[in-house]
């Protein structure tokens, strides 16, 4: 066999090798890890949670969900994604994840936990009483939903505690506004707020002061309706029986 023939043969072998073995060559030089089994990904996510590497935990659990959506570990991953967002204080993302779990697994024993955590996502975003109380009301709605659907859940004591705090905030907000109207001499508006406070939040510790304020407002309104100054004296004279 001539040198030229040998060269051509080697060239052909090299060409075939290059065409058929690209994936093999890529595998030799690739640094990417092979797909990890679901239990390994789950352990990795739990480990990140314990180390407070919450976004890394989200990544691990998300991989588990995407790669093994029908595995038993995938259900755990869905719940732990929500927990990781919660601990990272990404409460909107956490609430969405808890809600999604509840929707996909309505019979799961973890549903009461999800409902309570949905309430906490709003509870943790509450503002001071001089600000908007939307998150407070949303938290109340979730805690009441938990009490209604799962009255014997282990999360009821915690929900009752947080519910009481939310109601106190709303009552304090009502009292704050009522006092503003009282100070600025808008007495009818103040009476309305004090009455709402007494009717909706009878447990509020300042209910006695609210009752006192109502009487004061009524007295001040009555005084405003009386004639003032010299004209008041003339009216008294004209009304007298001679």
Tags for this model:
242 residues; mainly alpha; 12 helices
Overview of this structure, please?
- It is a single chain.
- This protein has 242 residues and is mainly α.
- It has a domain at 37-88.
- It is 76% helix and 0% strand.
- The chain is built from 12 helices and no strands.
- The protein has helices at residues 3-20, 22-29, 38-50, 54-67, 72-87, 91-104, 111-123, 134-149, 156-183, 187-200, 207-225, 229-239.
- Helix 6 runs antiparallel to helix 7 and helix 8 (134-149) packs antiparallel against helix 9 (156-183).
- It is elongated.
- Residues 13-32 and 233-242 have low confidence and may be disordered.
Mean pLDDT: 85
List the uncertain runs. Answer: 13-32, 233-242
- Portion of residues in beta strands equals under 5%
Question: How would the global form be characterised?
Answer: elongated
Count of helix runs: 12
Radius of gyration: 35 Å
Kindly state the percentage of residues in helix.
Answer: over 70%
Which structural class matches the secondary elements?
Answer: mainly alpha
Written as H for each helix and E for each strand, in order along the chain, the element string is HHHHHHHHHHHH
What is the first-to-last residue Cα distance? 152 Å
Number of strands: 0
């Amino acid at each position: 066999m001539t040198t030229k023939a040998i060269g051509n043969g080697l060239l052909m072998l090299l060409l075939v090798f290059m065409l058929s073995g690209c994936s093999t060559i890529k595998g030799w030089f690739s640094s990417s890890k092979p797909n990890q089994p679901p239990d390994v990904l789950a352990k990795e996510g739990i480990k990140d949670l314990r180390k407070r590497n919450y976004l890394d935990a989200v990544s691990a659990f998300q991989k588990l969900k995407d790669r093994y959506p029908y595995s038993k570990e995938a259900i755990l991953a869905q719940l732990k994604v929500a927990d990781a967002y919660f601990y990272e204080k990404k409460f909107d993302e956490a609430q969405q994840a808890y809600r999604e779990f509840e929707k996909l697994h309505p019979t799961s024993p973890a549903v009461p936990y999800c409902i309570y955590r949905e309430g906490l996502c709003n509870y943790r975003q509450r503002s001071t009483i001089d600000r908007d109380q939307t998150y407070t009301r949303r938290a109340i709605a979730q805690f009441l939903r938990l009490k209604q659907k799962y009255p014997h859940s282990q999360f009821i004591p915690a929900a009752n505690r947080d519910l009481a705090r939310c109601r106190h905030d709303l009552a304090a907000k009502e009292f704050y506004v009522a006092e503003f109207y009282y100070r600025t001499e808008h007495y009818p508006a103040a009476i309305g707020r004090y009455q709402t406070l007494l009717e909706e939040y009878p447990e509020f510790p300042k209910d006695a002061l609210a009752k006192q304020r109502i009487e004061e407002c009524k007295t001040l309104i009555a005084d405003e309706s009386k004639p003032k100054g010299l004209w008041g004296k003339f009216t008294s004279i004209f009304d007298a029986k001679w």
